[in-house]
Amino acid sequence: MKLALYPGCLMPTEQYAYEMSIRETLPLMGVEIVDLPGFSCCGEPLKSINQMLTLHMSARNLSIADREGIDLLVPCPMCHLALSEAKNILDGNGEMKKRINAKLREEGLEYIGKQRLFHIIDLVHDEIGLDTIRERVKKTLPDLNMAAHYGCHILRPSEMGRPVDSENPRKMEAILLSLGVRSEDYAEKLDCCGGPLLPNHPETSLAKTGQKLQAVSEQGFDGMVLACPWCQKMFDSKQTKAAESVGSRAHVPVLYLTQLMGLAFGIDDAKLGLNLNLSPVDDLGLKGEVE
Q: Is residue 199 reached through a cis peptide bond, with omega within 30 degrees of 0 on the bond before it?
């Protein structure tokens, strides 16, 4: 399976561990990652200011994949939502498609809409399959109960179709179980990380992060697993400030799903960027040889 990696903005500028772990784990499961020149921002951060600009920017990125005739891997849920919405609009509105293509032709591009979009969770669960995951596991991880965090953009809006079920997502838990890691349900599983509010309402944003970290701690989880660079930014790098915002202290290890997969596959933790995680991941006992 060959996929073009659409990195978005946050992953190549801040959340390096996500990209590192993706590039290490996916080839072991038969996925060839292709890098295409010319990708830009998906436009989602500008949506509240200029919806047409967001649509144009998303369509531009999709048209680059169209030109190469390749499907897209979009690991950031916010980018995945923006590109999915653009595809949904352009495939269903011929006049809008003509209008956008008129602009794209200035760059020698054209939106056709043949490409498929994958996020990490649906790619691993639906396309690669859990049996393949089990076959690649080389090391037994410690007995862990990890809280699965999906985030908002991977879930909603459900009427458009998202990679996981909006009310009762279970794909990440199934992947974790195939790695030998437990993931119990908890009431706050679908709560937002607070990241989208950070630029305009930082206090509210950090409070939402802190509330969820507190809930995960109080319910006895060993840590959190997620697949979103914005959520990782909030729960991992801003963990101390977030906990202080709700009058508590947090000591919650936070990992990308692909990092945990890579460890189970026997990949060295440095290649997975585990040293870049700012939360106390060392407490999980995952580094080094795991028998």
A: no
What pLDDT does residue 276 have?
97
Strands (E), the chain: 2-5, 32-34, 71-73, 117-118, 146-148, 223-226, 254-256
What pLDDT digit, counting tens, does each position of 141-171 carry? 999 999 999 999 999 887 788 999 999 999 9
Whether residue 141 is found in the same domain as residue 195: yes
Which SS3 state, helix, strand or coil, does residue 182 take? strand
Residue span of the structural domain in which 28 resides: 2-118
Provide the pLDDT for residue 226.
Answer: 98
pLDDT score, position 158: 74
Q: How far apart are CA 253 and CA 129, in angstroms?
A: 27
What is the CATH classification number for the domain harbouring 150?
3.40.50.11810
- 137-150 burial string, b = 16+ CB within 10 Å, else e? beeebeebebbbbb
Tell me: do 97 and 169 sit in the same domain.
no
Are the C-beta atoms of 156 and 192 separated by less than 8 Å? no
- The CA distances from residue 290 to 23, 175, 201, in Å, are 21, 19, 42
CA 124 to chain centre: 12
Q: pLDDT under 50 in the chain at which residues?
A: 290-291
Q: How far apart, in whole angstroms, are the C-alpha atoms of residue 96 and residue 105?
A: 14
For 128, which DSSP code? I
Sequence letter at residue 1? M
Whole-number Å distance between alpha carbons of 162 and 48: 21
pLDDT in tens, 197-249: 998 899 999 999 999 999 999 999 999 999 999 999 999 999 999 999 999 99
Instruction: Give the total number of structural domains in the chain.
Output: 2
**In one letter, which amino acid is 109?**
L
